[in-house]
């Protein structure tokens, strides 16, 4: 199928599909005229990518683990999955730490604004 069809079916823009290709996340086929040709398995892979990106995972991590998530079971799949889960937990922990810092900053700004209202004539 052409990129417009893959975009419509997956709900991902054609621009995003090109980005996924540039990042090595997908490899669509090519027609004789040079147009991209997306098969159903590539569209399915796009849906996995979109889900992982919406979860906040970085492209680097997705690129590293995507083959084992979409290409079926193979040698070392359990080790890859364990490593992936470790990376996801680590990413989540870093995200939680950033959220905590932002929450503290927000609370400090709330205090500042309350104090500013008390002294505002």
Give the overall average pLDDT: 88
Can you tell me the number of structural domains?
2
- Based on Cα principal axes, name the global outline: elongated
How many helices? The count is: 5
Secondary structure class reads mainly alpha
Note the main sheet. 2 strands, antiparallel
What is the terminal separation in angstroms?
67 Å
The CATH class assignment of the largest domain is Mainly Alpha
What is the name of the CATH architecture of the largest domain? Orthogonal Bundle
By CATH, the topology of the largest domain is: Multidrug-efflux Transporter Regulator, Chain: A, Domain 2
Radius of gyration: 21 Å
Question: Can you give the helix content as a percent range?
Answer: over 70%
Low-confidence stretches: none
The number of distinct β-strands equals 2
Approximate strand percentage:
under 5%
- Topology pattern, helix = H, strand = E: HHEEHHH
Strand order of the biggest β-sheet: 1-2
